[in-house]
Design goal:
heterodimer, A: mainly alpha, B: 2 helices
Chain lengths: 356, 106
């Protein structure tokens, strides 16, 4: 839809297939059309739109809590993309080859782009991007806990692509079917690009895992460090999740935290085997009855600590973001001054013309 | 994507850069399609930002940017009243007409 030309075999199966299916469903739902008035009872109309799996659009009536939930979620998601540039930005100057450097640059640029798509989606709900950025800088809105972990080795660039972006995709693919139109459309675009992120990471890690013993060890160490934080990305277990039930009813969220975490683990086991690396969980074992892997849960107390600001890199990430924002101020000011100057020149020229 | 409102300036800060809506022609022969929005100080920067944001993977051969404030949109509140005149004119569709058997090229 947005002109992404992926080879045909990519769309037939796997996560990209699901994104494609969500995109088709979006178009089909739109074609079913809706008649009837929103005017008399907007709440009933809103409920009907949700029930029919159709999209709520920016200027439609929506419950204030629906709007607030979306703003919070989309903003948090946007902030995560922006903060998420830092752990990988850390390695751009130290990439081992020009090819890897170009790939990493493209990936980090994508993260910025994803942040911008999401801020734009949030703005359709009546907040401004500047407001949201201020809330982030003031520490009043959160970003994903995962970005508060340090990237200690080059192998982390691979593991982030494989596990962190992999977990993000599992989380985000169902969001392509979110009931709020602008968010769903942004997610379709993002998921298509995330797929490149995941694959480049997997390839990087595969190369290291099949390299020298030292490279292999570096890859394994990296997976050991990122596995549990990646599992924690799906949020607290369903029994403790505060936002889930209402978000499910509104079709903002489609699956529970635990369902998505299970799906992620089931995907990763086979992928780890192909890499020849071990997932650091001795309890990992296939459960025939459940049709999924049993696994050790991440440390949710740690997750809460990291979310509350006590992770290894929270302070560094925020300081860096604040500094970058501050140091970019002159660029924004210069662009605005130039635009104002050009506009006034134009105005004077047109006045002269009128006089002449 | 921003169809709601112009952001207001924040207290103490510079006014935010204006919002632009971005339209991309994916390939020759196709119409420009709305792909999203962005902030930029002027049209030239908006065009450059649009290129970086929406066509990183050769998604387009041509881009339009226009100030979101310049768009006049129909209101969803009066959606039905606004589009009503078309609702009872089925005779505007070819399927309204019965074609006698044997009549070809219709």
């Amino acid at each position: 839809m947005y002109g992404n030309d992926f080879p045909a075999d990519d769309t037939s199966s796997g996560l990209l297939g699901e994104v494609e299916a969500a995109e088709t469903a979006l178009r089909e739902a739109a074609e079913r059309g809706r008649h009837g008035a929103a005017g008399a009872d907007p709440a009933a109309y809103f409920a009907e739109v949700i029930a029919a799996d159709q999209k709520v659009e920016p200027r439609d009536w929506m419950p204030e809590a629906y709007r607030a939930t979306l703003i919070r979620q989309i903003a948090q998601h946007a902030h995560s993309e922006i903060i998420g540039m830092q752990p990988e930005g850390n390695w751009i100057t130290r990439a081992p080859s020009l090819k890897r450097k170009a790939i990493l640059l493209a990936k980090v640029q994508d993260e910025a782009g994803h942040g911008l798509y999401l801020y734009a989606a949030a703005e359709t709900l009546g907040v401004s991007r500047d407001e949201l950025v201020d809330l982030l800088l003031a520490g009043r809105q959160k970003y994903s806990s995962i970005f508060n972990y340090p990237t200690l080795s080059w192998a982390d660039m691979g593991t982030i692509g494989w596990l962190v972006d992999g977990a993000a995709i599992v989380n985000q693919v169902p969001l392509c079917r979110c009931s709020y139109g602008p968010y769903a459309r942004a997610m379709i675009r993002i998921c298509k690009e995330e797929s490149f992120h995941q694959r480049q990471g997997y390839e990087l890690l595969h190369t290291l895992a099949h390299g020298t013993p030292a490279q292999r060890e570096m890859a394994q160490d990296s997976v050991n460090r990122w596995w549990y934080p990646s599992l924690a990305m799906f949020g607290p277990p369903d029994t403790d999740s505060t936002h889930s039930a209402q978000s499910m009813a509104w079709k903002i969220k489609r699956f529970s935290n635990d369902e998505l975490r299970q799906r992620f683990v089931d995907m990763c086991v086979g992928q780890a085997e192909v890499l020849g690396l071990t997932l650091p969980d001795p309890a990992l074992c296939w459960n025939d009855e459940r049709g999924g892997y049993d696994f050790t849960q991440p440390d949710y107390a740690e997750l809460m600590r990291v979310i509350k600001g006590a992770g290894p890199c929270n302070r560094q990430r925020m300081e860096h973001r604040r500094r970058a924002h501050r140091e970019g101020a002159w660029v924004r000011a210069a662009a605005a001054a130039y635009a104002a100057k050009q506009a006034s020149k134009k105005e004077q020229a047109s006045k002269k013309e009128k006089v002449a | 994507m921003s169809e709601y409102s112009e952001p207001t300036s924040q207290p103490g800060g510079a006014p935010p850069a204006p919002l632009w809506e971005v339209f991309v022609r994916a390939r020759r022969g196709l119409a420009h399609t709305h792909v999203g929005s962005l902030h930029a100080a002027d049209a030239e920067l908006a065009l450059h930002n649009a290129r970086d944001l929406y066509t990183r993977r050769q998604e387009g051969v041509s881009i339009w940017v226009l100030p979101a404030a310049a768009i006049t949109a129909s209101s969803p509140d009066e959606k039905d009243a606004f589009f009503d005149p078309a609702a009872d004119k089925v005779y505007r569709h070819p399927t309204f007409y019965e074609v006698p058997e044997g009549a070809a090229h219709l």
